[in-house]
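Sample 1 of the test manifest.
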Amino acid sequence: MEGLLHPDCYSSREVFDREGERIFRRLWIFACLKQAVAGDDCFVTREIGGRQLVIQTMAGTVRAFENVCLHRGKLIQTEFMGARPLVCGYHGWRYAADGAVQTIPFENTCFRFADDERKRLRLREFAVCMVGSLVFVNLDDDPMPIGQQFPAKVLDDIVSASESFDGEFLVARWRRRFNWKLAYENLRDMVHPRFVHTQTLALYASFPLLSGDPTIEPSETDEAVPDLCELSYGGPEGEIKRTRPPAFAEWTSRWGNVDAYFNWLLYPNTHLLTSDGGYSFSLEHHHPVAPDETEITAYFFTTRRRRTVPWLAATLWEMAKGAKRVLDEDTDAMEEVQRGLGPSARRVRQGVYERQNRLTDRWYVEHVLDGRADRNP
Amino acid sequence: MTRPSTMRTLIVGTDEMAASVAAIVNDIERDAATVPVPRVPGGGFDLGVLAAYPPSQWTFLAAVGSEFLNLLRLGLFAQLRLQGYKATRAISRKASLPQAFRQEENVVVGPNAVIGEGTTIAYNAHIGAGAVLGRNCVVDHSAWIAPGVILGDGVRIGECTILASGVVVGDGVGVGSHCELAIARQHFADVPDRSFESRLFDDVVRILPAGRDRAAKSRSTQARVAGGHPK
């Protein structure tokens, strides 16, 4: 079957801006781990849908504000993660837990705002939802219930799994030259590990070629637009080939007892997995930077430690290096796909095993492209 | 190497590293022995092969590279101590040492390394050939300073930290513990504990402690600057 998305969907600035409006400023988007903001003044900064955000714990509550000072428009928190009060470094404006301006240095001398104007000085705030240890934000003025975006089973899994995460984690960020959608098309593709990951992932895990009902024969004409909820899914997807638990099983509390490779894909851009049946997890967040550029933030953590050990840093670092080799194999392939998306590029050809990609594309065409799959946007 | 004259040196470890340490030891002592020991699943080493080398006659050098942030070497060091062995050290004749240099257990200093006056090197640390350490540096236990690393004066290197060849650390800079700096780069600012630099990643990778701990640290350091803005 011919793919539903025109190649321009992966390279056009117009489409990219529309995704910001229709997806990233409308849906619940993963922002950070609860562990990263687990104390007052702990913060994470993110740019989502073109908006600068700070997710910060204020007076015991995780809040999301626009990370732009109301005075001169400078970013208030400038690091990716940290712990400091919500104070702008330019002129010292300090913000309270509700986003209102708390103190302005030299206010009576240099500013002299009228009372009404002073009371209106408040950062724009966005909705926050905690799903276990995962913090999501929604930039919409009227955010949808999170259960409308993710199936209850997936939410239950995420709560259960993420509450087993240890408090310390390794975080890494890097950028690659491909459109963010390619990452998820690749993650929904269970055939590629047999070719791309022959020396890494395929050595310790195997995945069925067809997921879901193998008898389904999708046709090009009768595909209905799926519910948003159908785009997120997950669970035990692959078989682990190992003969014994990882070395750190001795000092961690395993999540569950199923020897499987678990994947959860949370539309639009979050991927949680455990490759060792619940002893450790990693979470990848693919953040769109430009039509042809994606920032990947990867978190690595074991499950909760049963005792203090000297091995944690080395364990997480080894996990990160191993995972990065697999991710590099994926991103190398995606960069090659991106390079093939030139002016003469044609739509992709999809097989029956790509049903989940096709469902996602169908939703995308309807909600991002206003149903105009046949036209170059 | 100082020990009773009847004692001989047993180099225990993994092949490549043992050969490197043996090259230093053999320059000083002709009757040292080298014994590779196999790893066992789940961590540690199988020391069964050491039955022919009683602790009463042999002192050891644990010769394992910088694997697993030096924790494997540290683990072997601890295992051998538990078996009743005493550790020695391998300091190359061609290294340049300060006058009052305290030679801690299982320290290795390679040929042509230069160690400045007042610098201390804790047990199980490894200083590679040609590394240059300035004056008054402190290298904590089990650190790994690769060949060709340059440390300025007053540098502090945390425990188990790895500095790869080509790393330069400026005067007075502290590199935290359990770090791996694997890119030949100059560091003129402190590097926090458990920071990693590798060509695999574009950016410095860090392991973050629980947010609550970071918040507490941050509050203590910001107390001076956050005290009340003038109205």
